TrEMBL record:
Protein name per UniProt: Chemotaxis protein CheA
Biological processes annotated in GO: chemotaxis
Record organism: Hymenobacter arizonensis
UniProt keyword terms in alphabetical order: ATP-binding, Chemotaxis, Kinase, Nucleotide-binding, Phosphoprotein, Transferase, Two-component regulatory system
Cellular component terms per the entry's GO annotation: cytoplasm
Boundaries of every CheW-like domain copy: 401-543
Length: 546
């Protein structure tokens, strides 16, 4: 398996060879027409990008040659130098040297000595004549047999990968059906072929998914400027630290959470971190600490936004939620801090005291919630007054194929994404109590409300659920505990079937308007299976509880 360094080196080589080919083409055009503005601008851009990439990879000499040529092209563009005479010879030699250095990087060999070339480029920048030595500076085709090379990497549009992944998804569905059929027929030859198809399609599926992965740093590396601008607007001192930029995730997921992460970072600087005066008064360092990090947890990717600011004022949020009519004072008094913090993600909810360009406009953290819901992701919030807050986005590595637990209600299967499942329980009636008309059990020292999944799926209208009783409970109750926004809910089902990967397809109209279902999948038996939307089930229960 390739290391991260090998992958980065290959990416650098692919771009560098492409830059080199473009440089040679534009340089020939500039020689034919010294006033060719577009060619000159493109040469300046290519040198600038190559310089930045080379320095980032630690190829100092390569970066220095590109930097000197970039400066020289800038002077030519500003008409302080003319592309003529000895300048042409040195520039062509410089571009040839870049090609040799790029090939040396690809072959993992030492880079050639370019001290004389850099001296001549310096002379040209200063307006002096270079010291030309044909033996040292001019390399002909006959003189290390220079090769014309093509990159090992190709660029491909994301929509092409999307289409390929959809086709693989269809293949996975049919594969499971063939495997089920082969097991039912019990034909050894057919079963062996089905098992081979299973392995091949599995490899194909993960190969396509792997091709869509990008480093989280593609997004995280854009935030230093964001933090600087917000901190300046808020007149705060903020130090940003980042880690885990090389953690891999599906490119589409990264695209979907971009706005969500932007809001979290802006919120951390605007609401989370105190002013310099407030920090000093509370005995903290003047500079606030903001950390953006990515890490993996089982099959998930976690992106965390952590600040060492004032923390969430739970009681202030509780009062605001009551004022906004999101809950009653009586109900709010019974909610724990995690349930209170969930109000921060309601549409239009804001704790800002005044409207600024950064905050207080009623648009913000609900964007985070919507983005995570669309991905089947989760949000974790941890906070301590005076110490800071951590928001954790729990994201699937890929959105094409998801792990799911299949459950059965009234002899029909339903799929629940594993991302929202916490545990399965077999509860005896004695482990269940009735509190305020709601079934309740205790799990990890926390009261978890229970509701028959049948009621949530089939009770019509906006009427509250009927008060729960234990009179119909005979024997163990099969309970699937799901978790959304730090709110646990136990779904009582008829039985657990199995855990498997599923390919989720969107529901067609008009079924796509039913919030309780996040899509549909096809089981190996050919049976259609609805995929439950856990956030929607959670919201429905909160709205309909007695």
């Amino acid at each position: 398996m390739k290391t991260r360094d090998q992958e980065y080196r290959e990416l650098f080589m692919a771009e560098a060879l492409e830059y080199y080919d473009s440089m040679s083409r534009h340089l020939s055009e500039l020689e034919r027409n010294p006033d060719a503005g577009p060619a000159l601008n493109e040469l300046f851009r290519l040198m600038h990008n190559l310089k930045a990439n080379a320095r980032a990879m630690g190829f100092t000499d390569l970066g220095e040659v590109a930097h000197h040529l970039e400066t020289l092209f800038g002077l030519i563009r500003d008409r302080e130098r003319t592309f003529s005479g000895s300048l042409i010879q040195v520039v062509f030699t410089g571009v040839d040297a870049l090609g040799n250095m790029i090939r040396a990087v690809g072959a993992n060999q030492p880079l050639p000595d370019v001290a004389t070339l850099l001296e001549n480029l310096d002379r040209l920048v200063r307006g002096e004549e270079p010291v030309l030595d044909d033996e040292d500076l001019v390399e002909t085709d006959e003189e290390a047999g220079r090769k014309m090379e093509l990159s090992d990497l190709v660029y491909i549009q994301v929509k092409k990968l999307d289409n390929l992944l959809n086709l693989v998804g269809e293949l996975v569905i049919d594969r499971d059906r063939i495997m089920t059929l082969a097991q039912e027929i019990d034909n050894p030859a057919l079963l062996a072929t089905a098992q081979h198809l299973f392995r091949i399609s599995d490899d194909l599926q993960y190969s396509v998914m792997d091709a869509r992965l990008v480093g989280v740093g593609v997004l995280l590396n854009k935030f230093p400027r964001v933090v600087r601008d917000v901190a300046a607007a808020e007149e705060k001192q903020v130090e940003l630290m980042m880690s885990g930029q090389d953690v891999q995730i599906d490119r589409n997921i990264l695209q979907i959470i971009t706005d969500a992460l932007l809001h979290l970072v802006r919120n951390a600087v605007s609401h989370g971190l105190e002013t310099t005066q407030e920090r000093l008064a509370s005995g903290k360092p003047a500079v606030g600490q903001l950390t953006l990090s990515a890490l993996t947890e089982r099959d998930d990717v976690l992106i965390q936004v952590r600040d060492d600011g004032r923390g969430i004022d739970t009681e202030a949020v509780r009062r605001k939620a009551i004022d906004r009519g999101l809950t009653t004072a009586k109900a709010a008094a019974k909610l724990d801090e995690h349930a209170i913090w969930a109000f921060l993600f309601e549409p239009g909810f804001s704790m800002a005291q005044q409207v600024t360009d950064i905050s207080g406009r009623g648009v913000g953290l609900d964007v985070v919630k919507l983005a995570l819901d669309s991905l089947g992701g989760q949000l974790r919030v941890e906070s301590e007054m005076g110490a800071g807050t951590t928001f954790t986005l729990v994201l699937p590595t890929s959105i094409a194929v998801k792990g799911a637990l299949l459950v059965e209600v009234d002899e029909r299967p339903y799929a629940v994404p594993l991302l929202h499942t916490e545990t399965v329980l077999a509860l005896h009636p004695g482990q269940i109590s009735v509190v305020g008309g709601v079934l309740v059990t205790h799990f990890h020292e926390q009261a978890v409300p229970l509701v028959p999944l049948r009621q949530l799926l089939f009770d019509e209208g906006d009427e509250p659920l009927p008060p729960a009783t234990k009179t119909d409970m005979n024997g163990p109750q099969h309970v699937l505990v799901v978790n959304y926004n730090n709110r646990r809910l136990g779904l009582v089902v008829d039985r657990f079937m199995r855990q498997q990967n599923i390919v989720i397809k969107p529901l067609s109209k008009p079924l796509d308007t039913i919030d309780l279902f996040g899509g549909v999948t096809l089981l190996g038996s050919g049976q259609v299976c609805l995929v439950l939307d856990v956030p929607a089930l959670n919201r429905l229960f909160l709205n309909k509880r007695p």
